[in-house]
Each structure stands twice: as C-alpha cells, then as structure tokens.
Amino acid sequence: MSYCRQEDFSELLLLVSSMAGKDRIIFATKEDHETPSSAELVADDPDDPYEEQGLILPNGDINWNCPCLGGMASGPCGEQFKSAFSCFHYSTEEIKGSDCVDQFRAMQECMQKYPDLYPQEDENDEKSTKGLEAASMEASAAKEEKESS
Length: 149
Description:
Layout: H1 6-20, H2 30-34, H3 78-90, H4 101-112, H5 123-148
C-alpha cells in the first residue's frame, strides 16, 4: 500500500508543493511493487494529429512539429525553412530539389542574419558546403538549359 510520510517530510513536501504546485512525493513499499499493475494501455490512434508521426505524416504531408527538425520550422527563419523544405519534399524534378535553389538561397540568407542561432560550419564542413553549392549551381544550369531547349 502506498503512503505519504508527511510527518517525516513535511518541510520537503511544503517546498516541493510551493515550487511546482502540483507535485507530491509518494513512497512505495516493496509489497506495492510486487502487485501486478492494473493499468490499461490505450492503442495509439494513427489519425491523431497531435501524436508524433515522424517527419512525414501518413497522408504524405510534412510534420512541422517533428522533433527531428530541431525547431527549424519555428525559428526566425522558419518560413524560409518551410518553403525550402516543402519545395524539396514535393519536387518532381529529375534532380530532386533542383527547382528549389531560390528557396534554399533565401533560407541561407536569412540564417546568415542570425549567426548566434545558426552558426557557420567549421573549415572541414565548409568544403562539403562548397561542394553542395557547386552541385546547386550545376542543377540551376541544367534546369536553365532544359528550359531553353
């Protein structure tokens, strides 16, 4: 049987209660833990919009609340991030995302305005960034060639 030893811990309980207002310290005995739990688990509802579904929802939409995005969708450059990421996700180009260069450039420009929130990469990462930029330029050139033909 669970019990709360308020007489022994009254000061501690008062402190915890005043700090959180909702918390209570409860001590359980060994016998309490030997009794099987009677809690019933409820199956997750796959259609629950508030349930974590991962980055892509079952209907194919982007889950902007996914913790995997690390808050990028809600920061000062959130709209630019959403625009670039959406463009890439829904891109049907042969080189996926090659039609999203402008959106990614706008996101990068925004991020450069907030260096404390979006720090620049170190030297080793700069080499890979330059490679990505070169690939982006090649994709833009390929797109322009395709459109002019």
